[in-house]
Amino acid sequence: MIRHLTGVQGDIVSSTAQSTNTTLPKGVAPLGSGSGNSFLWRRLHSLTGIVPVGLFLLEHFISNAEATNGAAAYNAQVKFLTGLPFRLGLEVFGIFIPLAFHALYGVYIWWRGENNVIDYPWTGNWYYTAQRYTGIIVFAYVTYHIWYMRFAGVHLVEHYDAAFWKVQNELSHPLALAIYVVGVVAASWHFGYGLFLFAAKWGIVTGTKAQKRAQSAGIVLSVVLVLVGLFTIYAFTAKFPAQPRDPAWDQHTESVPAAQSRMIPSTTPSSQAR
Question: pLDDT (tens digit, 9 = 90+) per residue, 134-143?
Answer without folding.
Answer: 999 999 999 9
